[in-house]
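Kindly inspect both lines:
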Amino acid sequence: MTTDSTLRFGAQTDEVTSLLRIVNLVRTGEATTRPEIGKVTGLGRGVVSQRVDQAISIGFLGEGEFGASSGGRAPRTLRFRAEQGRIIICALGAAHIRVGIAALDGDIVDHAHRTWDIAQGPEKTIDAVMALVDSVLKKHPDVPVWSVVVGLPGPVDFNTGQPVAPPIMPGWNGFDVRTPFEERFNAPVWVDNDSNLLALGERARRRDSLVDLIYCKIGSGIGAGLLSKGRIHRGANGAAGDIGHVRVSDSDAQCRCGKIGCLEAVAGGWALVRDAEEAIKDGANTTLAAAARKGGLSLEEITLAAQAGDALAISLVQKSARVAGETISALVNMFNPSVIVIGGAMGSAGEVFLAEVRQRVYELSLPLATRDLTITLSVNDEREPLRGGAELAREQLFDVTFPRWFAGGRPSPERMSVPA
C-alpha cells in the first residue's frame, strides 16, 4: 500500500499514477463508471475498484446514479465532488474590479463588481479586492478555498506572479501580488494577464480543449491571449500577446508607456477619446459634443454613437479597426489560428468595428492562414474573465500540480512548492 508520505511528496509509483488518472477521467467525464475506467486504463476490475475506493475515501469522488445497463446489472456512475472546494477569481481592469467564486468544475457560483481606478496602486487595490471577495464569500460559508486566480491589465511574469512595467498601473512594477492572497486564503495563487483569462474563458465556452485561438481585447488598452491547441502561449517571460505596444508605422503619437507610435496610442480606447475631443475642439459636427461638454467623453459613448450613425464616431472606430487589423494580420501569419475573437469595450461597436478588422486581416494575411479562419465578436459577458480564471486554476490544480498535493485532500501553498 502506498504510504501517505509517498503520495504527499508526489512519487510517481504506478499506484499514484493510476489513482490520479482515474480521478481526472471522472472529473473530465471521459469515464464515469468502473467498467468504463477499466476499458480506458486497461486496469483490472479489482485494481479499478481499489483505486476508486481510495479516491472516494480521500474525498475526490462520490457515488452517482446508476448508469445504463449493457446486459447485466446497471453500473453505478461516479462523480467528481466539485462542491468540496471553491476557486476565487479576481479580474482587475483599468477602471473596475470583478470577483467571483467557482466550484471545482468551473461553474461560477456567485460574483460581484465595482468600479475602481487601478492607478490607485497595489495596496489600496488589493484591499478593495479582498473586501469584495469577503462580501461574496459571506454568502457561501464553510466551503474551503482551494485556489485563487488574479487577472491584471498589464504584462505579468507568470512564474513569479509579478507585474512587469505595466503602463497603466503605476506602483505595480515588481509588486508581489501572490503573497497577500496566499496568506489570506492559505491556497495556491496564480496571477496572469487579463487577456489570457479571456482566451481561456472562450475555450471553456466553446468546449474545445484543442482550439487554436487569439482573443484580442481592445478597450482602453490592447492585448491578446494566444491559445495553441488549447494551451496558453505565454512565451519565455509571459510577454506573448502584448500587441498594444507594437509600433505603428508613420505614427508619432505618444503612448502611456513612454514610447512613440504604439498601437495602443493610435487604436486604443483612450486614444479615440483623445482624438474625438481634439476634433470637437476643432469644430466637428457630432453628437459627441454634448457629452464632451458635460465633463469628458468615454469610449462607451463613442462606440454607441458609432452604432447610431454619428460620422465622427464611425470614422474613429474604423480607424482603430484598420490599424488593429494590420497588427492582427501579422499574428495570423505567424500563429495561424482557427478563431479570432474581438472583445473589450471596442467590441461593443459591433459590425462597424468588426467588418473593418476582417477586411484588413484578409487583405494582409496569407491565403492559407485565412482559409479556415473565423473572426467574431465576444459574447460580451462580464463573467467571461471569471470563467477563464476558473479554467486556469483547474488546469494548474489538476493537470500541472495534482501529484504534489492530492494526498492531503486539498492544495496549499506549501504543497505547491514540493517538486513533483
